[in-house]
Amino acid sequence: MAWFFLLAAGLAEIVFAVSLKYNIGFTRLIPSLVTMVAGCSSFYLLTLAIKVIPLGTAYAIWTGMGAVGVAIVGILMFKEAHDWMRLVSIILVVAGVLGLKLTHNE
What we know:
mainly alpha
């Protein structure tokens, strides 16, 4: 169940970060509410995950999921750069996250 909480925390982190683009300095109500709910949800789910998963592993995976997710959303939704170096860097972060997951023993 802890891995499910960590996955959900990472997805909420992506929603949190992307919603920052839309709330325009917390001047728009709905996007601001989405930011607050997603951010609180992400942190809460992370705290549930670290009851079982070691902190270093959970935090690294959580931040990696957020970084990769937001980078992909940026490329797809906001037409951000997607040159080969950026894509290789994203792949390296994914490899690191997978490596942490595969080397973790519960």
